[in-house]
Amino acid sequence: xxxxxxxxxxxxxxxxxxxxxxxxxxxxxxxxxxxxxxxxxxxxxxxxxxxxxxxxxxxxxxxxxxxxxxxxxxxxxxxxxxxxxxxxxxxxxxxxxxxxxxxxxxxxxxxxxxxxxxxxxxxxxxxxxxxxxxxxxxxxxxxxxxxxxxxxxxxxxxxxxxxxxxxxxxxxxxxxxxxxxxxxxxxxxxxxxxxxxxxxxxxxxxxxxxxxxxxxxxxxxxxxxxxxxxxxxxxxxxxxxxxxxxxxxxxxxxxxxxxxxxxxxxxxxxxxxxxxxxxxxxxxxxxxxxxxxxxxxxxxxxxxxxxx
Length: 308
Ligand code: SF4
Fold this sequence. Notes:
Blueprint: E1 6-9, H1 11-16, E2 31-34, E3 56-57, E4 60-61, E5 64-66, H2 67-76, E6 82-85, H3 92-102, E7 110-113, H4 119-125, E8 129-137, H5 141-147, H6 155-167, E9 172-178, H7 184-196, E10 200-205, H8 220-234, H9 239-248, H10 250-256, H11 293-304
Bound molecules: iron/sulfur cluster (SF4).
Iron/sulfur cluster is lined by residues 83, 111, 113, 131, 133, 173, 175, 202, 267-268, 271.
């Protein structure tokens, strides 16, 4: 079977579609697909693809399956959207156009999460594509240069601006990773810059790519503060004010933000990315659903240090 007839499918999506055995406690609510290809040219230090392993993205495996069969099963499923991830492989733009064309009359909206695309390609993909995810990833240009060494740091902000011009305010999502070595203030500035540019923000907790127990990952309290920060900045609070509230008066923050939404996976409508950065049985960093009252009490304790 040629590569054009195949697609990578996140393991959870493959289980949901009956393409792989087993069932997860937390199921995806949208279909996660990834372009096949050999080695990603990005070289992002936090990504398993940089190790030349095209089967993995974050801690999730993406088996290579038959494209048409996968599309038919998505059409029949209750998954509400399709997200197509693309590593930076040769001709990824043409391959994306081909996969989107193969989706045919699927009456489900499509998101793309890709390296930079030119204006013509972005315009040609509009409808069924209605949203674009941009891997800004690192909060500062210095960190982006260090962690995404094969790219000029500025190109992701330029790509974000171009995508907002074509897809409109709120239809572009800046992907930002918390825990790459930035300060909470640097993260706040990057979030504010994304929001002011007309994008929404999706936070990802840093998780090292090493296999096994000694994986380095973001501190849970730092990540909870980052999630609260995004919730406050999304409510048009200014950076200094938001940081002051989170660091000096965290209990008030829980009265100001929607605590049921603040700790959930954010991004395109329906995107919940279960187990993308958290292993089954571990405490969710991005909840793939509304957290329970017990889970919210635990988070409050983490952030305020006050027993609930
Ligand atoms: S927010 Fe979710 S659905 Fe949207 S591009 Fe990112 S991973 Fe895909």
